[in-house]
Amino acid sequence: MFDIALLVVTLLTAAVNIAIAAADLAGASFVLANSSEVGVPRAWLPRLATLKLAGAVGLLLGLFYDSLRPLGVAAACGLVLLYLGALAFHLRARVFYNLAFPGFYFATAVASLALTVSS
Questions:
Q1: Pair 51, 76: CB distance under 8 Å
Q2: In this predicted structure, what is the pLDDT of residue 37?
Q3: Residue 98 contacts by C-beta under 8 Å, 6 or more apart in sequence?
């Protein structure tokens, strides 16, 4: 039986990472504008999208297969580090007006990590 909080938070984290990875891969105008503003080279976007997708897949595998729970923990750790980097890029570039977006992704990753570890 699933812990409902673990299920909801992990599914949310996976969904938002899949969505933003798709936007990265599609070269959405808001992604290009934001990455340029904070100093992320456009060439990094496919790699960052791959990391986000890998994190989402790892979270889902860890959620649905008990034997892969360590993979879910590793995926959540990776997403936490990814979004710490995003927050650092925003702070370094002094781009504060949209800091809530990487902050939200970071918070979902931290919550997924905490719930996965505690389950």
A1: no
A2: 95
A3: 34, 90
**What pLDDT is recorded for position 49?**
98
**Amino acid identity, residue 8?**
V
CA angle 23, 83, 110 (to 5 degrees): 115
Which residues are CB-neighbours of 60 under 8 A, at least 6 positions away?
A: 10, 14, 72
Cβ atoms of residues 58 and 72 within 8 Å: yes
Parse the chain into domains and list their residue ranges. Answer: 4-118
112 token code pair: 């997924």
Q: Which residues of the chain are under the pLDDT cut of 70?
A: 1-2
